[in-house]
Amino acid sequence: MEDYLILMRLDILTKEAQPSPEQLQIYMKQYQEWVNGIVAQKKFKGGTALSTEGKVIQSNHIVTDGPFVETKESLAGFIIIQAESFEDAASIAKNCPILMGEGNSVEVRKIMSIHKEE
Amino acid sequence: MDHSDIIPNLFRTEYSKVIAVLCKQFGFYQVEIAEDIASETFLTAAQTWGLNGIPTNPEAWLYAVAKNKAKNVIHRDSIFQNKILPRYQQDHYLSVSELDLSEENIRDSQLRMIFALSHPSIPIESQIALSLRILCGFGIDEIARAFLSNKETISKRLFRAKEKLREKNITLELPAPHEWGDRLTSVLRTIYLLFNEGYSSQIQDKILRKDLCLEAVRLCSILLENKETNTPEVNALLSLFCFHISRFDARLDADGEIVLYGDQNRDLWNEDFIKKGEYFFFQSNKEPKFSKYHIEAAIAYWHTVQEGTENKWESIFQLYTGLLELESSTLLFLNRAYALFRAKGREVALVEVEGLNLKANPYYFSLLGELYIESDLAKASECYQKALLLANTEKDKSAIRKRLAQLGSARFL
If contacts are CB pairs under 8 Å, which of residues 21-50 in chain B contact chain A? Predict the structure, then answer.
C-alpha cells in the first residue's frame, strides 16, 4: 500500500444559478458518503477542504489574492488515501462527488517519500 | 443530533442574517455581493462539512467564513475598494474587519431589511419574492412554487426588484414615522405568506415546514420588539401563528400523513403555544383597531376550544362570513362551509356547498363527500373518487384513499 494524494479542483469562478439549501445538503452528504466509503476500505489517511480564498506569492515576492483570479480551476481540497496502485487510487478518485460538476477535475498523485529507503 | 437537514435549516435561519448585516454595512445597493457572499459561505460549508464533519458551533463557523469572504471581496474587487468602500467608510466610519455579527446588530439589520424590502417603489409581488429570498433564505425554486410560477420569471422579478433598489438608492434606513402604517401592511402580508408556505407547503411533499413557520414567528417577534412596530395588527398576526403552531404535532400522524382537524388527538396540542396565542390576542385588542388578522386569530382561537363548547362552530362560521367581506377566496368558502356543517349539520351545509360549484378543487369534493356520508354513501364515495383524481400531493391522495377505505367498510356494516 502506498500513499496517494487526491487533489480536487473546482470551478468557483463561474456562478451558475445558486444551489438551493437542499442541493447543498445533498453535496454535503455526497462528500460524506465518498469519504466514509474510503474510510470503510481502511484506505483513508486524512485530508481537508481548503478555503476558497488564498494568496499567491510569485517569484518576485509579489503577493496577490487568488488563486482563482487567474484560473478557472482552483484547489478546493485534498485527501490522502492508501491504495494498492495508481489504478486503485484513480478508481477511488473517480467517485469524488465534485466530478458531477461540469469543469471540475480531480488529480491523483503518488506521494513520494524521498527519505524512505525503497 | 440529527444532521439530516442541517444545511437547509441553517440556511433558513442564518442566510438572511448574514445578508442583512452585510447590507447594513456595505449599503443596500450591494445586495448582490452580500447574496454571493452568503451563498458562497454555504457552498464552502457543504464541501468542508462533508469532508471534515460538522463543526461544534455551525453558526459561528458560518459567520467566521462569511467575514473572511467579505474581507476578501473588498480586497479583491478594486473598484469596490477604490470607489465605493472609501465613500462608505467616510460616511459610516466602518470597515469590514469590524463586521458586527452581534445579536443586537443582526436584529437591527434585519428590522431595517424588513422595511427596505417592503419599499413602496417595488411592486408588491417583487417585495414578497425579495423578502422570501433575502429575509428567509428561500431558494428560487421554492419562491416559484409559492407563486405558482416558474424559475425564470422569479429570477427576472428578483433581478428587476434589485435594479429598482439600486435605481431608487434605497438605503437600510427605517421609514419615516408617517410611512410606518403602509409599510407595515406589506411587511405583514409577506410574513403571513411565509407562514402559509410553511404551514401548507407542498415542497418535497412535506406538508409542514415548521422551520418556515417559526421563521415567520421570529420576524413578527422582531417587529414586536420595536415600539413603533408593536401594533395591534402585528400582535394579532403573531397570535394567529401561535394558535396554528399549537396543533403542529397533532396535524401529522406517525407516517407523516395529514390528520384532519376532526380526527386530531387533542393531547398533542401544545398548551404553551395556545397560551402564547391567547396572550398576543389579548395584546392585539388593547386598542380599538381591527384587521383581517384579528378575525383569523379569532377563528384559530375557536379551533383550540374544546369540541362541544357552546357556540364554537357557530362563531367560526360567523367569523368566516366576516372574513369574506374583507377578501374572497375558494379556500375561505370551503372553510366557511365546513364550519356551517359543524354548526348546523350536513343538510344545511350541502345546500351551501352544492351552490359553490368548484369542480376543479380536490378539497371541494372531499368536503362534498363528507357531507354525503350519512345520506348517500355511493355519492359520498363518488365525490372522494373525484377528489382523489384532482389531488396534487401524495399526502393528500393517501388521506383520501384512507377515507375511501373507511367508507368501503362502512358500506358492509
Answer: 35-36, 39-40, 42-50
Cell numbers representing residue B345 in the block: 349539520
How far apart CA B10 and CA B211 sit, in angstroms, is: 10
**Distance separating alpha carbons of residues B70 and B65, to the nearest angstrom:** 9
* Interface predicted TM-score of the whole assembly (ipTM), two decimals: 0.77
Q: What are phi and psi of A78, to 5 degrees?
A: -150, 155
Q: How many domains does chain B have?
A: 2
Task: Give the residue from B24, B54, B85 where a domain finishes.
Answer: B85
Name the nearest CA neighbour of B251 among B207, B198, B299.
B207
| CB contact residues (below 8 A), chain B span 70-99, against chain A | 72, 75-76
pLDDT at A43: 93
Determine the pLDDT at residue B85.
60
Q: Which domains does chain A have, with CATH numbers?
A: 2-110 (3.30.70.1060)
CA-to-CA distance for B400 and B59, rounded, in angstroms? 42
> How far is the C-alpha of A58 from the C-alpha of B31, rounded, in Å?
34
C-alpha closest to that of B294 among B236, B336, B235, B217:
B236
Name the residue among A24, A53, A77 with its Cβ closest to that of B72.
Answer: A53
Query: Residue B201's pLDDT is what?
Result: 62
CA distances from A81 to A10, A38, A89, A118, B404 (A): 20, 8, 8, 19, 57
Of the candidate ranges B139-153, B263-277, B349-363, the one whose mean pLDDT is the lowest = B139-153
pLDDT value, residue A69? 47
Q: Single out the residue in B85, B115, B132 at which a domain terminates.
A: B85
pLDDT (0 to 100) of residue B190: 81
Domain housing B378: 353-412
B210-225 and B232-245 are packed helices; what angle lies between their axes, rounded to 10 degrees? 150
What is the pLDDT of chain B when averaged over all its residues?
A: 83
pTM of the model: 0.70
Contact A65 B43 (CB under 8 A): no
Which whole number is the average pLDDT over B91-104? 65
